[in-house]
Design goal:
With 322 residues, the chain is α/β, with parallel strands linked by helices. It has helices at residues 3-17, 40-51, 61-66, 86-94, 112-115, 136-148, 158-176, 196-211, 220-225, 248-260, 275-296, 303-306, 308-319; strands spanning 33-36, 57-58, 75-79, 101-106, 119-122, 188-191, 215-218, 236-242, 264-270. It has two domains: 3-153, 3-Layer(aba) Sandwich (Rossmann fold), CATH 3.40.50.10490; 158-303, Rossmann fold, CATH 3.40.50.10490. The protein is 47% helix and 13% strand. The protein is globular.
């Protein structure tokens, strides 16, 4: 099984694993906790901030290492699937004398990170023994964290959401597959506001990991202030929007104006769901689109695994390997 086959299987496995997530009664005061993590885990922390109207804050691990007193009197949740990320371990060590409590959220309850924390929330799920881009791990950690904050995980229409996104992803692949004759497509940009901004960021990370292509994420306002001016007809822009959010009409206007300039935009209008359903719909859509596009373009492996030199640099910096 190659990494893309594993990715595809893990995407589908989410339907089986989500209902098994351990449920919590709300265990934190939203105004008294910090989430931290890197990569996909940082995105999860940002989602928590948006869902609590920023009562909960998300801080980059490096900022907490530089200024550990940020954690004074706070409960700090350190999200790390592997539990091996050196910066996260250093955070746990640095904030011990300041924080109220340190909790590791990890799939590795016996990891070095877990040993440096006061308690552990075990992300107990079945994944495939093949390294691949984060999909199942992202969704399990995301839903676990939002449940900790008091959000219900009772999702009656999970299979329906998945099926809708599967069909939409297939449609998007058929619309865009001919664009990806590089260098004709220069970069892929994801736009989203409110809780859809972290999802936009997640989308750009999956494009980087799976294809090795340039990809960026912005909120609507920040995109219009600066990145808009370097956008060309060679770029592809994914615009996420929900009618539940106040900027929906402004996003539709941007979409129309960009199309008039012959800039390829794809408007991702999300059904009138609640916040958790919106998160799942948009996440599944990104995952399925990336996996199906990679298959259509006959990729055999995720790019981050194929580029051994860059992977070595990444591992040296993240895990302190030789």
């Amino acid at each position: 099984m190659n990494s893309l086959e594993a990715m595809e299987r893990e995407i589908y496995r989410q339907i089986l694993e989500i209902p098994k997530i351990k449920r919590f009664n709300q265990i934190v005061n939203n105004q008294n906790c910090i989430f931290t993590g890197s990569g996909d885990s940082y995105v999860v922390g940002l989602i928590c901030s948006y869902l609590t109207n920023f009562n909960t804050i998300c801080i980059d691990p490096a900022d907490m290492v530089i200024n550990p007193s940020i954690s004074k009197g706070k409960t700090v949740f350190i999200i790390s699937i592997s539990g091996k990320t050196q910066e996260n371990i250093l955070v746990a060590q640095k904030i011990k004398k300041y924080s109220n409590k340190i909790v590791a959220i990890t799939n590795s309850p016996n990891s070095q990170l877990a040993k440096n924390c006061d308690s552990v929330i075990h992300l107990d799920y079945k994944s495939f023994p093949v390294t691949t881009a984060g999909t199942l791990s992202f969704v399990i950690s995301m839903l676990t964290c939002v449940n900790i904050l008091g959000k219900s995980l009772e999702i009656d229409n999970l299979s329906s959401i998945y099926e809708k996104t599967r069909k939409k992803a297939e449609n998007l692949v058929s619309k865009t597959e001919n664009i990806f004759t590089f260098p004709s497509c220069r970069s892929i940009i994801f736009l989203g506001n409110s809780i859809l901004f972290p999802i936009a960021l997640y989308g750009s990370l999956k494009i980087n990991e799976v294809f090795g292509w340039k990809s960026f994420a912005y909120s609507l306002e920040n995109f219009c202030h600066s990145p808009l001016f370097e956008t060309t007809e060679d770029d592809l822009i994914f615009v996420f929007s929900s009618k539940r959010h106040s900027l929906h009409n402004k996003i539709k206007k941007l979409n129309t104006l960009l199309q008039k300039r012959k800039i390829t935009t794809l408007m991702m209008e999300i059904p009138d769901y609640n916040d958790i359903q919106i998160l799942l719909f948009s996440t599944f859509l990104i995952q399925l689109y990336v996996a199906k596009l990679a298959k259509k373009l006959e990729f055999q492996n995720c790019y981050f695994l194929e580029n051994k030199e860059l992977l070595k640099i990444s591992s040296q910096l993240i895990y302190n390997t030789k």
